[in-house]
Amino acid sequence: MCVTEVKRQARAERTRASLLRGAREVFEERGFLDAKISEICDRAGVAYGSFYTHFADKDAVFAELIDEMLRGLLTVMRAEALNGDGPEARIARANRAYLRAYEKSARLMAVFEQVATFSPAMRETYLRAWGVFYDRQERAIRGWQEAGLVPADIDPRTAAVALATMIGRTAYTWFVLGRPHEDGDVDQLTRLYCRAIGI
After folding, report:
1. Through-space distance between the first and last CA atoms of the chain, rounded to whole angstroms
2. What is the rounded CA–CA span in Å between residue 88 and residue 129?
3. Superfamily (CATH) of domain 1-55
4. CATH architecture of 59-196
5. Residue-wise pLDDT tens for the chain (199 aa)?
6. Could you state, in order of their start, the residue ranges of all structural domains in the chain?
7. Global pTM value
8. Entry's SUPFAM superfamilies (predicted)?
């Protein structure tokens, strides 16, 4: 690749990154429906036509932002070992890590929730992302059942869905809706989770 091509590619990557930053700001401030491509370009400091060099439409730039956000959440989740110092300690670490990661992206997560109610593509992304969380928690609960730590009459899938939803909706009410909470409330979530599965 020649020097000119390298410079052109670097410039294109900078423009794309600027558009993504600008889009995130606009989506977080205005929501999806009221966001305009012209404002995204203004925030990014690029010409209007440059947007279409990188993205087909508003949906495409939003989808990329959501993919990036979800990769971050999944990285946090996957960094949490499935085994270690016992189920309660693992659940506590996972809950705290998830809540920290959610808080960092709460404004974009709120827009994601909004768009998933009317966009079939975003709804599918939303359900797929939650499916990963459900699967991981289901595997953990099954493993604890095999070790004799969780009663056999608890259905691992139902428990995983219910308890992941409890943590997710709590995060939404705290960080999106602004419900006051204290550090001890996180401990309470872990206690509720553990008691629900008989730990």
Report:
1. 59
2. 24
3. Homeodomain-like (1.10.10.60)
4. Orthogonal Bundle (1.10)
5. 675 665 666 676 888 999 999 999 999 999 999 999 999 999 999 999 889 999 999 999 999 999 999 988 888 777 766 556 789 998 998 899 899 999 999 999 999 999 999 999 999 999 999 998 899 999 999 999 999 999 999 999 999 999 999 999 999 999 999 999 998 999 999 999 999 999 9
6. 1-55, 59-196
7. 0.83
8. Homeodomain-like, Tetracyclin repressor-like, C-terminal domain
The type of residue at 52 is: Y
Tokens 């990014």 correspond to 44
